[in-house]
Amino acid sequence: MRRDSKLSGVLHVLLHMAEAPGPMTSEALGKVMQTNPVVIRRIMAGLRAQGMVRSEKGHGGGWTISCDFTAVTLRDIYEALGSPGIFAMGNRSESPGCLVEAAVNAALDGAFDEAEALLLARFGEVTLATLSQDFHARMQARGQDCGAQAAHA
Fold first, then answer.
1. Is 71 helix (H, G, I), strand (E, B) or coil?
2. Any coiled-coil ranges, and where (predicted)?
3. Any idea where the domains of the chain sit in the sequence?
């Protein structure tokens, strides 16, 4: 089963950008994320459309954060990514002809709905600033200086 790690990846990118002294290019972010710069540009386009990041072309250009880290939550980022499915599990058939399968679907649907609501509520409580503070605390606990390069040292 393949896991969708886009949210995790975007949060990773945003925290690196917050530590950078200036704009970061798609190439630099691609190296941090060990992925192709095209993937970075595709992901960042959705965040740009929501006003969370901006990009400048040309020499000295790149991606910068344009949102308030204390106000933007994980849920905001999740929604900017198009609200991807949270669970890889699902019903075998959405329109079962079997009453047994209908009963199973009803039980699973209720559980999935409750779990998704709980997770999205938690996402709404965690800001980007919270993640940044946690990163800084982890770096200090290691006795290291914070910074984009130090994070992967």
1. coil
2. none
3. 6-87+128-152
